[in-house]
Amino acid sequence: MVQLFIDGGGFMWPILFIFIIGFVFVGERLYHLVKGLASNEQFAMDVSETLEKSGTNAAKAKCEESIGPVANLCYSALEKADAGVEAAEKALDQSGSIEMASLEKNMTWISLCIATAPMLGFLGTIAGMIVAFGQIAAADNISPSIVAEGIGQALNTTAFGLVVAVILQFGQNIVMFIIDNIVVTIQKST
Question: How many CB atoms lie within 10 A of CB 168?
Fold first, then answer.
């Protein structure tokens, strides 16, 4: 595997860098989203029961103890509870927009990495073919061994760029699946 990376030439390093950056963003999103799964629809019902039994301050304290978008929404609604139902609903709408933006944070960077990796791979392919044709032009005798290095470089960069994009796309799809489930939970909870 290391030899294939080395044989791919100079374009392998930017592709590896893109992979690391994309993987970090996928990991950050997964960590953030999995933490947010702690509060769900049942949590919102528990907060409602706490509000009825113990009052606003106890319900706020329950929200402060939990992490996630549902807990944040409940807390923002409870902060405006004294101002009436309309104020609480407005707070829910505003908080919902903020929570949605928070869920989708850094998704653009993941998409950028998915798009950039294969393009760098194809650029490496062009560079490899230029090397191969340069070797053909310099040789008096055309043989497969003359062009093998350039074509090998071309194929390695293409493969590596596509593998990176596939791995990051898989990670992005997992993140999007979790986001969709959290959005449904938020809608049910409000």
Answer: 25
Q: What is the DSSP code (8-state) at residue 8?
A: T
Dihedral sign computed on CA atoms, order 27, 35, 182, 89: negative
Q: What is the Cα–Cα distance from 177 to 39, expressed in whole angstroms?
A: 17
In the numeric block, which tokens belong to residue 51?
Answer: 């509000």
Cβ proximity of 183 and 128 under 8 Å: no
Neighbour-count burial for 68-83, b at 16+ CB within 10 Å, e otherwise: bbbbbbbbbbbbbbee
Q: What is the pLDDT along the chain (190 residues), one digit of tens a residue?
A: 777 777 777 888 999 999 999 999 999 999 988 887 777 777 888 878 887 787 778 888 887 788 888 888 888 888 877 777 777 778 888 888 888 888 888 899 999 999 999 999 999 888 888 888 887 777 777 777 777 777 878 888 899 999 999 999 999 999 999 988 888 887 777 7
Between the alpha carbon of residue 122 and those of residues 4, 100, 119, 162, the distances in Å are: 16, 35, 5, 9
Residue of 167, 119, 123 whose CA lies nearest to 21: 167
Q: Which residue has the tokens 């990051």?
A: 168
